[in-house]
Each structure stands twice: as C-alpha cells, then as structure tokens.
Design brief:
Order of helices and strands: EEEHEEHHHHHHHHHHHHEEEEEHEE
Radius of gyration: 25 Å
Strand order of the largest sheet: 3-2-4-1-5
Strand content: 5-15%
Length: 434
C-alpha cells in the first residue's frame, strides 16, 4: 500500500518509495530504500521535497508512527496522507523524433562534460560520487520516456576524443530503454541507467593513447584494457550506496556466454541478466560508433553481426533488444501477435520502424498472399512475439528460403514433412512464381 505524506511525517522504519518534486530537491541517488539511519531521516526533513511516498507493505505505516504534527514550514502542498492505488507514476507525454532531438543534442553536450568531470575526479583519487550521476540518469530516463529513439540516435554522433563519455551516456540510454521494454519497475530502470553510465569508469586507468590508438593493440596494451572492468568495480565498491546491479554490470559487461569474455571467462549460468543486457547495449553502441580504428556500422549491420556471433549474447534478450531499438537483421522467421508467420525485411530508409513480410497464417495453417507490414510500438498494432525455428515448421535451407521470400516468392504448403520431425505444424516450401 502506497501513501503520500509530508516530509516532516517521515520516521525511521518507513520504506521510501519515491520523493515528490525534482531529482535535485532530495539528497539521495537511490529512488527507493528502507529508512534506518537517523542521519538520512534528518536529510529528508531538511530537504525541499514537497512530499514523500512510502510503501506501508514494506516498512512502518504512518498510523504506527507518532509523527503526525503539522509541517514545520507551513507547507500545505501535501495536506496530509493520501492513499495511492495503483502506484502514482509520472506520465511523460510522447514527443516526435524531431521534437525530442533538439533536447537530446543539448543533453549529450551537457552530460558529456559532466561525465568527463566526474571520471576525472575519480582518476584524481577522489571517491566516486554516484549521487552526482543521479540527475544525469534522471534526464536520460525522461528523454527516453518522451521518445525512445532520439537520444540514442544523437549519441551515435560521437567525436573521437569524447567517445568514452558519450558511450557511457549511450549505454545508459540503451539500458534504460531496454529495462522499460522489459517492464521493470522504475527503481530498477534507474539502477540500470546508473549502471550504464558508470560501466566503463575503470577506463580512467587506461591511457588515452591506447584507447584512441588507430591501429591494432599490442598484447600488453590489450591486457591493460582488459583490466578496466575490475578497476571500475574496485572504484565503485568504495561507494556504500552502489547497488548490486551497478557493481555487477561494471565488473561483468565483457563476459560472454561461451566463456570467451573477460575478466573471468564466466559462462552462461554464471552471468547475471543485468550483465547480459549490458553486454548487448555496450557492443551495439560500440559497433555503431566511429572509432579511431574503424568506421561506424549501420544499425542493421551491427545487429546482424551480433546475431551471427553465436555464443556471445543471450538470444532471447538480443531479440528483445531488437524490439527495443526497432532494428532486426533481415531474414529472421518471426511469429506475430496476429498469429501469422513473417520474415524480417531490410529496413526502409523512409521509416525508422522495422518491416516484415507476412506469408503464413499459423492459426488456420494456410498460406497467405505476401503482405508487407511496418511494425509500430503501439500495442494496438501487430508485434513480433518471438523468433521461430524454421526446423519446427518443416522449413529446410532457411537462408535460401528467406532470400526467396524477401525477393517476392509465394509460399506453397505441402503435406509431407521432413523425416524424423514430430511437430504437427505443416511443412512449408517455396515455389518461385515470378
């Protein structure tokens, strides 16, 4: 049960669900926490927040606390406790890409300077101030909520000398957007945003001449680069408020499911979901950015390469990431929410939304005339539910089949399935009808 109260009504033992007002008005970078420290209580009461939302199911209820006095500063903007059901969440108005892009450009310039300054402080031996990253993460979350593509698109236009800082911002935006796509609570979305922002902070120990080297790294140089996850973890561990997600992502975002990653060569079951998500976001932004040693790849090419690198990434999460950014490699067999099979098509430059070619009704088990659809992130429109295995549908030689479908061939249903299959799905073959 969520309840809104005044800041002077807060007491030890309560669970803080969120603060009202701006992120800059309260002294905590964590959006939700159990209030057990008298110093934290004093900081809340001395802050300028207009109200506090507590979760009475996870902490002390207001009725159990003897602190119902009137606000000491006469602020009656929160006239008393108010029950909130369902949880009160800020609703952002969706903006068009062009409208949000202008804000995103300003956000990138400002954030790059701030991240560079905060990384420099850590490099000078000062403790990492995670609280200082909170306003930046809040701005990223707000931008992604207004338009999920604008900020990510702007961050791809990195200057070589600011790559590390804008890359940090880009990964934060990608992880924020992905976490929202996975319907995580806003507190977890925030944690993922912070994790993305500081995942590469360990690179402050690597000289710029190595990070920006145009040619291949020597074995010694690459060995030094490979220390940055552990170096970053040690820096962040000195901050008492660093969450498990932030520490885990920093330490393990270069691990790979097949054990080929670093620093520990962890394998599938040893790598957390957060680290798997971070690995996808980190690599995607790196591939789609200009680097000193390579030109940026197009989004579709980057996703296609990542899809082909079997054993590197969690395939289910990678498909979810494709949904988040609206980019798919052409030639995937996918199942739509309308119970139809389709093949993903090359992106149309006239739209940023993915396109598929529908060719089969899975419910009626009948072929369909080829139909091209541009998918939308509006739940009222058709959506990709999952990637399908061609073998499960009796399709052999799928790469050629997909190429023919993309070229305009019409599928033809036949009753004979390949030997050894036990699925009741009809086999599909293609006849060139051009």
């Amino acid at each position: 049960m969520l309840r809104r109260i005044r800041r002077d009504q807060v007491t030890l033992g309560m669970f803080v669900h969120r603060f009202e007002g701006s992120w800059l008005d309260h002294p905590f970078w964590l959006p939700r926490f159990h209030l057990t420290d008298a110093k934290d209580l004093a900081r809340i009461r001395e802050s300028s927040v207009t109200g506090v939302v507590i979760d009475e199911g996870r902490g002390l209820a207001l009725d159990s606390a003897d602190n119902g006095a009137a606000s000491e500063d006469g602020d009656d903007s929160v006239a008393g406790p108010e029950l909130l059901s369902p949880p009160l969440l800020a609703v952002q108005r969706r903006h068009g890409f062009a409208e949000e892009r202008e804000r995103a450009v300003a956000l990138v310039k400002h954030s790059a300077r701030e991240i560079k300054r905060l990384f420099a402080e850590a490099h000078a031996g000062e403790k990492v101030r995670l609280t200082a990253f909170a306003p930046l993460v809040a701005e990223v979350m707000a931008s992604v909520a207004r338009n999920p593509y604008a900020l990510i698109a702007v961050t791809r236009l990195k200057k070589l000398d600011e790559y590390t800082y804008v890359h940090s911002l880009a990964v934060s935006a990608l992880m924020t957007s992905f976490a929202r796509h996975l319907d995580m609570p806003e507190s977890e979305v925030f944690d993922y945003g912070v994790a993305g922002m500081v995942h590469d902070i360990g690179k402050i120990v690597v000289p710029n001449k190595i990070l920006q080297k145009p040619g291949p790294l020597t074995d010694a140089e690459f060995a030094l680069v490979r220390t940055h996850p552990e170096q970053g973890y040690r820096l962040l561990s000195r901050h008492a408020g660093a969450s498990a997600v932030v520490l885990d992502v920093c330490r393990h975002h270069h691990e790979r499911l097949d054990g080929s990653g670093y620093p520990y060569g962890l394998k599938d079951g040893q790598i957390s979901r957060a680290a798997r998500i971070a690995a996808i976001c980190d690599v995607y932004d790196a591939l789609t950015s200009n680097r000193s040693y390579k030109a940026a790849w197009k989004a579709e090419e980057a996703i296609g390469r990542m899809y082909d690198w079997d054993g590197n990434f969690d395939r289910e999460l990678l498909l979810g990431f494709m949904k988040t950014i609206g980019v798919y490699p052409p030639g995937l067999l996918v199942y739509l929410s309308s119970n139809r099979l389709a093949v993903t098509m090359p992106n149309d430059r006239r739209t940023s939304r993915p396109k598929v070619r529908v060719f089969f009704c899975a419910r009626e088990r009948t072929q369909l005339s080829l139909l091209d659809l541009v998918l939308d992130d509006d739940l009222g429109h058709d959506q990709i539910v999952r990637e399908e295995s061609p073998v499960d549908w009796g399709i052999t030689g799928w790469p050629l089949v997909a190429e023919q479908l993309v070229s305009g061939c019409v599928p033809k249903i036949v009753s004979v399935r390949p030997a050894g299959t036990n699925s009741d799905r009809p086999a599909l073959h293609l006849a060139d009808t051009r």
